[in-house]
Amino acid sequence: MLFWKQAWRRNKGNERRSHYPTGILDIKLYMDHHPHAIIIMSKDGTILRVNRMFESILGFESREVVNRPIFDAPFVPAGEFNHLADHRNKIIGGGSIMTVNIVRITKSGKPVRFIATVYPLLEDKGGNETFIVEYRDISWLSMDEQLLS
Which range is the signal sequence, renumbered to this chain (predicted)? Predict the structure, then answer.
């Protein structure tokens, strides 16, 4: 499960470390109890798993998106495929954790704004990496902007 651990060290101040899931059981628990939409994706861009919040927010069931390439996913607007390829290449090239503002489309056709964070998760013995893509819903920001104007 993802959590922050804060430890105090004498003469060194506080230290904060993030603990990301490491084993298959940890990943399942992390995804099932996470408050944001999550995708686990292979290095080549194939969607391997989505969590319940993904299904709830975007309206797509896991069977509709799992084992499909992210470049063919029904929730990604066509105009974002070029940006998606650039972000993927940066991560594969050893780039660090990335956070970007994006729009995804629900099954009903409604656009939803997210902040997406991508980070490497596991590497198996064959060198195949998987990545977690975490979508934080920020559509409430546009509602606040409308109220202020």
Answer: none
Contact 141, 148 (CB under 8 A): no
Domain count, the chain: 1
Quick check: 148 and 138 in contact, CB under 8 A?
no
CB 70 within 8 A of CB 131: no
Domain boundaries, position 143: 3-148
Name the phi and psi angles at 137, rounded to 5. -70, 120
Eight-state DSSP code of residue 69: B
Q: CA-based Rg of the chain, rounded to a whole angstrom?
A: 17
pLDDT in tens, 80-123: 777 777 777 777 776 656 678 888 999 999 999 999 888 777 66
pLDDT at residue 66 in the model: 96
SS3 73: coil
Task: Provide the residue count of the chain.
Answer: 149
- Output the CA angle 149-135-147, nearest 5 degrees: 10
Nearest to 116, CA basis, from 103, 105, 128, 127: 103
